Amino acid sequence: MYTLMKELETSYDKESILAGRPNKDDLLVVGIGASAGGIRALQCFFENVPANPGMAYVVILHLSPDHDSQLQQLLQHVTPLKVTLITEKTRVQPDHVYVVSPDQHLIMSDGHIIPSSNAGIEERRVPVDIFFRTLANSLGPRAVCVVLSGTGANGSMGLKRVKECGGAAFVQNPREAEYNEMPRNAIATAMVDDILPVSEIPEKIIAYKLNLGSVQIPVDSEKRAEEEQHALREVFTHLRLRTGHDFSNYKRPTLLRRIERRINIRNLSSLQAYAAYLKHNPEEISALLKDLLISVTNFFRDKKAFDALEKDVVPAILQNKKAENQVRIWIAGCATGEEAYSLAILFAEKTMGSIDDPKIQIFATDIDEAAIAVAREGYYTLNDAADVSPARLRRFFNKEGEGYRIKREIRETILFASHNFLKDPPFSYLDMVSCRNVLIYLNHTAQERVMETFHFALKPGGFLMLGLSESAESASDLYTLFNREFHIFQSKRIVQSNYPVPESVPHFNFKEPAASQAVISQENRTRERVMRNDLHQRLLEEYAPPSMVINEEYDILHLSERAGRYLQMTGGEPSQNLLKLVRQDLCLELRSALYQAVQRQIAVEAQGLRVSIDGQSENVNIHIRPVFRQGDIANGLILVIFEQSMEDAGGQVILSSDEPLARQLEEELIRLKAQLRASIEQHEFQQEELKASNEELQAMNEELRSAAEELETSKEELQSINEELRTVNQELKVKVDETTLAGNNLQNLINSAEIGTIFLDRSLRLALFTPPARTVFNFIPNDIGRPLSDITNKLNYDDIISDAEAVLEKLLTIEREVSSIDGRIFLIRILPYRTEEDRINGVVMTFIDMTQHKKAEIVLRENQAWLNGQKEAFQAAMNGQSLTSSLNPLIRTVIDQMDGEARSAFYMTPSGGEGLHLVAGMTEEYAKDINGFQIGPESLACGLAMHTGDPVITEDIEEDPRWEQWRPIARKYDYRGCWSFPVRTIGGPILGTLAIYFRQPRSPQQRELEMAAIITHSASIIISRYNEAVERAQAEEALRLSEQRLKNLLKIREEFISVASHELKTPITSMKVYAEIVEERMAETGNHEDGELISRLNEQIDRLTVLINLLLDTTTISEGKLKMNFTDVDIKKVVAEKLGDIQRAGTHKFELQTEELPLISADAERIGQVVTNLLSNAIKYSPAGSTVRIAVRKEKERIQVSVQDQGYGIPKAHQQKIFDRFYRVTTDNFDTFPGMGLGLYISAQIIQGHHGAIDVESEEGKGSNFSFTLPIKS
Predict the structure, then answer these.
(1) Cα–Cα distance, 1244 to 1252 (Å, whole number)
(2) Could you read off the pLDDT of 77-133 as tens digits, one per residue?
(3) FRET pair for 880, CA 20 to 30 Å: which of 3, 398, 619, 862?
(4) Dihedral angle over CA of 27, 33, 39, 44, nearest 10
């Protein structure tokens, strides 16, 4: 910030700026500064700005550079003025509003606004001050600044510059500001013209502009009317009486311009009206005084000038200065102290840290007591300290709150005092005087007197520093030029000064208007007489004894030329009191004499007083002459005359030689008694005053105690209010966060919806639009605020404005489907804009691009038609209709999609044939004409498509030479174009072709090719399913015939088995009988040679008997005639009996495990049959000598019988089938064993007949475990 502020402190001609006299036709530029809470204030401000104010407005919103500012759109929404975002150098034009993004700052130069990037933190901290300063430097009295809601002190420094250059300053009332720090800091400068609600500021500025030039006070008094002359006299009289300041030595044009400005600010019509306003509004006198005494300065103002001081002046002053010496500097017109502290810092940097350095004493004075109070405080805001480098801030300032305070060691080097160097006694023996930007306000005569005063105050060779618009070259006899560029001069040494010590300046001499030449002559004579009187007065002062005039407080009002020799300036705060200025040798006697003269109202003399002046001792007599003349301006004043008496070096009074010594001693005694009496009276009087003061102090203490109690109560109330405010702030922050989140959600919703939306106010002016709206309207950012009717659009919609007006009038919603000039379709909805308070503030229009939706609708309708055609075709195919009937719906779909301008047909190859034949779509006559159409590479249309598997498109048959042979048929049936598409399943064979015929030549579109692909795919499914259905019907018929033959064979087998088993049973029985007879005969004869044969015969007969029984059982089971004879059976007994029968073979080992078991209800014979079968299989399918384990146990509510062998085992693939009829395991191990596969089948049927279950567990190579369970008898 320090660097930037120094760059902005460029030289500018302040005197010419102040001399400017704007009028209502000039372009005024209004700079508006705001920060936090400023958006709402700005909107309120511009809502009250008329359409053609004739001014330009520049808005500086102090926000974070990362902030995404929408200020341009927000302001355009509320003002008819054009709002422009500044991105490049722009000339200012009336009736425009200029804004800048937060990452840039603006400066004003030569009628242009110039943006610059905020490269450093300083630009980001004070953008408002930057612009206000350059605005003031550029436009002077044509600049207006406005400070609105915000935090910090941004804008206050720039406001000072605007006021310094004659501009106007307005501030938002802090009570209504959302954040009041910026307004309060601006008000604290005491330079604000008016403090108003933000809604009233625009009107005030416009009134100020319209009044510019309406009141012009002539500079020449002869040109002023009598009424104006009288009114002007009243204005200055009010100023002098109320403030004590006399402006007779100030430049009249400047004074009159300031008064005119106050008249404009107060919106008054004449000087006379302003004089009356002053009379009834005393606060305006203070405001006028502030305007006349613009106290504006800043730290190290004009950096190059201070660099010159640091480099050349300060070392020259400090040269040859020792610790016992003192550096004395006077800052005349110090304002709020920044310049005084700047000089103190320069000297401190050169002297601090060394014991040999001289003491620095700086006197800083100004006639503005409010500015002096600020200077004494030594506290400055961050913005005030912006001109101080960071290093100096750290060294010479203490951070305190939101600002900086001067360190004590710097503060103690400066004495601040209220002082008017035009009439008050100056300081003396000074090393330097700095009086910058003050002389430009004074007339030439006053400037000369000031030069004399400063020369009197400076020691020879002392330095004088003036402002860049000021010079001491007119007093070349008093000063020599030291630095021309920065206006630094040095005091000359002269033998005797011809210039008197400054005295009271006479009042304004307001002359009457000239009436005639005689009057002019009379005035000239009067002027000559005045000059002679002045000469006489000067001669009297030169030869008369030194004297002075004081008031009743003993303050010096005027002193003669040589009276200063009896006065002596002392360190500390300067004073005008005679008793503090008179030499100490005279103080006691003078105090006593003054007291007697005032109390007794008589003339008093103090004689024979000894005083030491410049090392010489002399006697002096003091004469006190009070003035008591009622009605005279001199009434109450006191004349003090210093008369040097004739005495010897010893200090005795010189008397006549005949006067006796006793007379001298008597007079001395009388004089001493008189002094003593006066001292006693003065002491008694002061004692009475002290008593009264003590009583007053006691009363004040009581009041202060009461006030302290009230303050304590107020403090508690404030603490309570602070707690409430903290709670409210927390709630507000939550609401702000919610609002921010809602705003972000809304913005993201708008962006994601991609729906063009525009917002219009009640006048149908554009207030806001979303980016997608640019696809409909030709929007640019500057269109905000323009009527919608002025903005071009791309719609075929002439009634858009009338529809919007109808929505506003009738509060209804209007929907329109409108096309655009580029062929798109938009759904437009126009509805009222309702606020949360249910107020209608305008119209909202939304534009939804329905183009793709409409295209999708068309595609959907086409697809629906295709689906309907396919559905109908598939339904026909599923209902078993003919292939032609199934394909006809697809043909109708093709014709419908071609707008009825086409015909279509399906072709297939006949079974076992090579040519094509018509299946569906064309007439029988056409089918006969194309019968035998060949398939191959030399073919065309459908034949070629059938051969290659690719579509064949003939756009114009008449132009295709391949159609020459078939062209007559095309002409006969009236078609010029032919598209052929192969019909095939994915990865399958070509089943046929689809042909589409057109009366006119035609090339296919992508959508038509997609439709053909869908139709051919559907046709391929139908044809494939049709072929599959035919093949399936044929297969089903063949299967039915096979099943019928199988049933017949099974029936024959069953009949054969039944007959064979019955027929064989009788021969077997006979054979058994015959074998027994033979065996008996052999026993009778004793012939046993054939016994073994007979034994084998019996075995074969037994086996045959078992086989026949199995066949009979199988027949019985298949006929459902298997009968059971249930009795109470002891299952252990049955198992033991059957095991006994088997054990006789003696080939295997057996283990039987049993337990106590209940009886069961079963057929003992059939259960025995099952056990025998399982035991026989165990022996058959296990090696001889192996062990067979039989277990009979109870398992819950059932009896389980298991037979486990150590045989070959059964493969898993056969385990679930071994209980089927005639099933035998076909492996190498089992093929060697005889059997029919009926034993386990019959066993399973017997167990199922007992409501039991049979199962097997087996593992190849480890044996099998067969088990069955039977229910226990209940």
Answers:
(1) 9
(2) 899 999 999 989 999 999 999 998 887 888 998 889 998 876 454 545 678 988 999
(3) 862
(4) -50
More confident residue, 857 or 632: 857
| Cβ pair 1137, 1200 in contact under 8 A | no
Which CATH class name applies to 863-1037?
Answer: alpha beta
The dihedral through the CA atoms of 465, 470, 473, 475 has a sign that is negative
Question: CA–CA separation, 447 vs 54, rounded Å?
Answer: 40
**What's the rounded Cα separation, in Å, for the pair 749 and 414?**
64
CATH code: domain 296-491 is 3.40.50.150
**Burial of 339 (C-beta count, 10 Å sphere; 0-12/13-18/19+):** buried
* Rounded distance between C-alpha atoms, residue 612 and residue 11, angstroms: 51
Within a 10 A sphere around the Cβ of 412, how many other Cβ atoms? 12
Question: For residue 8, which of 104, 79, 93, 108 has the smallest C-alpha distance?
Answer: 108
The pLDDT assigned to 341 comes to 94
Q: What is the pTM of this model?
A: 0.39
Q: What does the alpha-carbon distance between residue 1187 and residue 310 come to, in Å, rounded to a whole number?
A: 129
Q: What's the pLDDT tens digit per position in 1184-1243?
A: 888 999 999 998 889 999 999 988 888 888 877 888 877 777 665 555 456 667 788 888
Query: CA 1095, 1100, 1104 angle in degrees (round to 5)?
Result: 145
Instruction: Evaluate the CA torsion angle 919, 921, 927, 933 in order and state its sign.
Output: negative
The residue type at 9: E
Q: How many helices and strands, by DSSP H and E, does the chain display?
A: 36, 42
1153 backbone dihedrals φ, ψ, rounded to 5°: -120, 120
Domain ranges within the chain, ordered by starting residue: 2-213, 230-294, 296-491, 536-650, 694-746, 754-849, 863-1037, 1124-1271
> What CATH code is assigned to 754-849?
3.30.450.20
Partner residues linked to 610 by β-bridges: 619
Q: Which two tokens stand for residue 622?
A: 């003091």
Q: Which fold does the domain 1124-1271 belong to in CATH?
A: Heat Shock Protein 90 (3.30.565)
Scan for tokens 């020449």, then name that residue: 220
3-state secondary structure of 974: coil
CATH number of 2-213: 3.40.50.180
Distance between CA 245 and CA 916 in Å, rounded?
125
Q: Rounded CA gap, 29 and 42, in Å?
A: 16
